[in-house]
Amino acid sequence: MMAAGASSVLRSDARRNIDRIRFAAIDVFREQGLSASLDDVAAAAQVSRATIFNRFGGRVGLIDEVIDEVVAAQLHDVIEESRSVSGVRERIGAYVRALRDLQYRLPAVNDVLLQEFPDSEGLMALCHAGGAFHDELVADGHADGVLAAQFLPSDFQTVVADSALVLKHRPRPPRIDYDRRTDFILNGIFR
């Protein structure tokens, strides 16, 4: 929302407000997800909701400002760490386990996977990166013969979205049950 280089011409109190909003948004979004109330962000930053709109243009501008700190780095790490796993079956298993772990721990991941804010360029870039990796994993899994022949990239997206919906809109299951279901998912997609 701010023009490049504008931070140097801001009054010190305005710069402090921007910093407080950013830090508050990172904390609130990590804890509650990207759908968290902007009133909660404003309260944590000790500013008015109007100040958020004035400085960031609203929720989408704020998401784009903090998405790297909230969730992007973690999602990219999961992809890169999974890429380093040798063996296609092991790579797919490591990715599914790591992604589901992230989904369980970080509510903002589920907002990304559900594309809750399609006007957010940063959020959609993460979705596209994840989708491309899913396509890669499914192609590798079929080429190596470890994935069920009928399992498609769109099925991968649906499995991820189903988990996100359950975690976002239902009571969070105990971790032991969640991990057991991860095993069910993996057993269902592998040959």
From TrEMBL:
<dbReference type="InterPro" id="IPR009057">
    <property type="entry name" value="Homeodomain-like_sf"/>
</dbReference>
<dbReference type="GO" id="GO:0003700">
    <property type="term" value="F:DNA-binding transcription factor activity"/>
</dbReference>
<feature type="domain" description="HTH tetR-type">
    <location>
        <begin position="15"/>
        <end position="74"/>
    </location>
</feature>
<dbReference type="GO" id="GO:0000976">
    <property type="term" value="F:transcription cis-regulatory region binding"/>
</dbReference>
<keyword id="KW-0238">DNA-binding</keyword>
<dbReference type="Pfam" id="PF00440">
    <property type="entry name" value="TetR_N"/>
</dbReference>
<feature type="DNA-binding region" description="H-T-H motif">
    <location>
        <begin position="37"/>
        <end position="56"/>
    </location>
</feature>
<dbReference type="InterPro" id="IPR050109">
    <property type="entry name" value="HTH-type_TetR-like_transc_reg"/>
</dbReference>
<keyword id="KW-0804">Transcription</keyword>
<dbReference type="InterPro" id="IPR001647">
    <property type="entry name" value="HTH_TetR"/>
</dbReference>
<keyword id="KW-0805">Transcription regulation</keyword>
<protein>
    <submittedName>
        <fullName>Transcriptional regulator, TetR family</fullName>
    </submittedName>
</protein>
